[in-house]
Amino acid sequence: MKTIEQLTTRIKELGKQAADLSRLAVETSKSDRQQGKILMLQAKEASKRYQTLIQELKRQRSV
């Protein structure tokens, strides 16, 4: 089980990663639609992990 500090750090990292991937996907899709789709899927997965960790953080804080 991760500490609250570790979760907070990882949440920040994943949030930034999801945003960066999404931004890159939009830019890339202008010239390479297939690669843009792949990047957007990666952004979506990072976002899912981000949301999961936020829920875990909320559970830990409520205990």
Explain the layout of strands and helices.
Blueprint (H helix, E strand, L loop, with lengths): L3 H26 L3 H30 L1
Helix pairs in contact: 1-2
Task: Write a structural description.
There is one protein chain. The chain is built from 2 helices and no strands. The chain has 63 residues and is an all-alpha fold. The protein has one domain. 11% of the residues are buried. The model has no long low-confidence stretch (mean pLDDT 96).
Main attributes of the structure:
63 residues; mainly alpha
Nutshell version of this structure?
The protein is mostly helical. Helices cover 89% and strands 0% of the residues.
Estimate the strand proportion.
under 5%
Q: How far is the first residue's CA from the last residue's CA?
A: 13 Å
Number of helices: 2
- What is the N-to-C order of secondary-structure elements (H for helix, E for strand)? HH
**Integer count of domains:** 1
Which spans of ≥5 residues are poorly predicted at pLDDT below 50? none
Radius of gyration, taken over Cα atoms and rounded to an integer in Å: 14 Å
Shape: elongated
The number of distinct β-strands equals 0
Q: Describe the biggest sheet? A: none
* Fraction of helical residues: over 70%
Helix/strand-derived category reads mainly alpha
Instruction: Let me know the average pLDDT.
Output: 96
